[in-house]
Amino acid sequence: MTIFLTGGAGYIGSHVLLCCLEAGHKVVVLDDFSNSSPEAITRVEELTGERVTIWRGDIRDGTLLRQIFDRHHIDAVLHFAGLKAVGESVADPLAYYDVNLGGSVTLVRAMAAAGVFRLVFSSTAAVYGDQVLMPLTETSALAPSSPYGRSKRMVEQVLADLCAADSRWSVAVLRYFNPAGAHSSGRIGEDPRGVPANLIPYAMQVAVGRYPELVIFGDDYPTPDGTGIRDYIHVMDLVQGHLVAMKYLADRTGYHVWNLGTGRGHSVLEVIRGIERVINRPLPWRIAPRRPGDTAQCWADPARAAADLGWRTSRGLDEMLADHWRWQAQNPEGYLS
Length: 337
Ligand code: NAD
Ligand code: WQD
What we know:
It is a single chain. By secondary structure, this protein is α/β, with parallel strands linked by helices. The chain contains eleven helices and 14 strands. The strands form four sheets. The protein has a seven-stranded parallel β-sheet with strand order 3-2-1-4-5-6-11, with helices on both faces. A three-stranded mixed β-sheet has the order 12-9-14. Residues 84, 86, 124, 126, 178, 197-199, 202, 214-217, 228, 230, 268, 291, 294 line the site of UDP-4-deoxy-4-formamido-beta-L-arabinopyranose (WQD).
């Protein structure tokens, strides 16, 4: 198959790129490198011995998208390109609606014009917002609490409406929980621009000495140790979820939604203890007040993906942290190292 991968130089996209190439697919990547480096793709090419066709450009550029669909015979689209920082989305909501919603609408227009109707979309557990009942199933209420989460929820709605209007569409919406880890080679991984917003990348950068200490946002949550609980999923398990979803869509149409999570949560303190085991020394941390907008706990019920796709995670927190650490230790400054 020829797969069109938007945002293919990013954290998750680069890991999916690697596995698509290993599975024997041809891949065309579109990325504007606003939050990534072409070096990620170079490294994937080195790891696989395969070449990738790269288009540098913006997902909102309909003319460029038409050119890409004219030039390549695309069978399926995996859509990762977008903005993903919750705090930034509160400060600059228009950017999030423009890139995430506008970009997705531009993409599906170009797909329809080219007669390509198979799409896997990167959604997020952020569409659920602050919920009390755990675990979250695909039918849990949707109440996103940030412009980021709302922009993803809106794209989901657009795709559902599209599938209802035109039976040729075949769409998988994958709601990721908290991706972490890296490919076991240590050659590709998460390389956030600026100060990392997420727990594991920040803690790993403390471990390599880029920051003096980890700040724990709150130890007074109604959880066993008082710190927030999340469902951390190894990026390679996440990648497998995309490959099986794509296979599922091969002979089915319609709109499908799956949670991609492990089904179990870990607290911030458990993650810190895990990192300390991997780096074999204490990680400096201190407690600070809660981060505005954070929820006490969030984890997935991944039963639907298991039933429909036969997909289950196989990697636990320790492997995730060991793989993330290998990447971070070998590339302390990310792709610029
Ligand atoms: P990332 O920022 O590493 O990757 C996104 C890629 O899209 C980057 O390479 C970036 O340069 C590119 N991009 C951004 N704006 C673009 C534009 N206008 N035109 C073309 N390319 C553009 O993020 P990621 O963690 O790999 O996330 C991939 C997708 O998964 C995103 O849509 C994100 O919302 C979603 N997601 C991520 C997480 C997470 O925690 N990492 C969780 C849930 C969902
Ligand atoms: C995890 C836990 C924090 C940083 C976000 C998005 C979500 C998804 C994944 C894209 C929480 C605590 C964190 C730190 C800390 N992304 N923490 N110190 O907030 O669950 O989810 O990323 O779709 O949409 O909202 O992830 O890694 O930021 O936080 O104590 O420096 O770690 O309070 O309990 P979150 P996170």
